[in-house]
Amino acid sequence: MSNKSKLWTKDFIIVSAVNFLLTLVFYLLVVVMGVYAAEEFNASASQSGLVVGIFIVGALIGRLFIGRYIEKFGQKRTLFIGAIIFILATALYFFNFGIGFLLLNRFIHGIGLGFASTATGTIVAQIIPAERKGEGIGYYSMSATLSTALGPFVGLYMSQHTSMQGIFGLCLTIGIISFFTIFFVKIPVIVETEEEKKIEKEEEGRFIAQFVEPRAVPIAIITLILALCYSSVLSFLNSYAIELDLVSTASVFFLVYSIAVLLSRPFTGRLIDLKGANIVMYPAFVLFTIGMIVLGFAHSGFTLLLAGVLIGLGFGNMQSCTQAIAVKLTPPHRMGLATSTFFIFLDGGLGFGPYLLGLIAPTIGHSTLYIVLGIVVLATAGLYAVLHGKKASSAQSQALA
């Protein structure tokens, strides 16, 4: 294999590690901040929920802003700025200035992650060889998958065995390690062609193109719907497990989910590069649908964990696949904006989904909600075919002709 086709380079490993560490802090704090707000500041249930959720709002706004300016600032400088904001916000958790200050700091912390993760996603898209984009992004996104499993586990463990000051200390240490690791990253210089410069100049005149990448929006819409459906699992699984008396089993649900993703992504990423995205996306739609329906009918620990495996094989692989699609559709000089667009829609679904679905869940119950959302996932396969699948199939056929 030539050096140009090499995937596991020093820079790829470092950027993936930085993304893992920063995302780990996010998921670690997600499971403890609501309880911390209630106990330390006597916050109401809605205020505690806001303390958790406002972080995602900050990340969304951070992505929306930096997506437009990342090429001007430079990816590495953007990553440094994001890491510095991230570290400062983490350090401010040690100070108790009331619930209002905590909310503001959580918002700023989210902006820092929005900056940094948009930069890491853009950098990794540039350093991955073109012929291994799907495989590379699959491996890169596993860094976030690992953090979704390890972060909540560490957070809950530490909350039972140490103080919040100890938790904040660990988070600050992780942030500082990430900052100094960035110095070792070397980012390739992207030279724009005259045609790309011409297109960029034309796009600058369009208001919407200054904030999102239009070519990435169709697949980002699919991501938004799928993330909204998956948010029901993140938000309501514990409540559902209490109803089923399966709390102990639910505690390993996301571990099983992550294992399914980790074992399958090396194969699915390579398939995307060799055969196109459709060969992964359509089976993933079916697996995600079955997983949600199995979850809705769960009555034992086995069926609950089976749902975790199926949802991991479905949504877990869709997440990296849709990101790869967004990057592949976009010229190099717009990769930062494409990455930002993808994550804005992903975070939007994960962040606002719990609120929207929370309006429905009390009326129809968790079991019915999961079954209905499984049907929504299957219907989204039709929308995917219209927005991307048919065009991708046609392009693949022409390439093979």
TrEMBL record:
CDD domains to which the protein is assigned, alphabetical: MFS_YfcJ_like
PANTHER family on file: QUINOLENE RESISTANCE PROTEIN NORA
Residue stretches spanning the membrane: 12-36, 48-66, 78-101, 107-125, 137-158, 164-191, 216-240, 246-267, 279-298, 304-325, 337-357, 369-387
Organism: Oceanobacillus neutriphilus
Keyword terms, alphabetized: Membrane, Transmembrane, Transmembrane helix, Transport
InterPro entries listed in its UniProt record: MFS, MFS_dom, MFS_Exporter, MFS_trans_sf, Sugar_transporter_CS
Name of this protein: MFS transporter
Lineage: superkingdom: Bacteria
Membrane topology: Multi-pass membrane protein
Cellular compartment(s): Cell membrane
Major localization class: membrane
Isomerase listed as a keyword: no
Domain Major facilitator superfamily (MFS) profile residues, every copy: 11-392
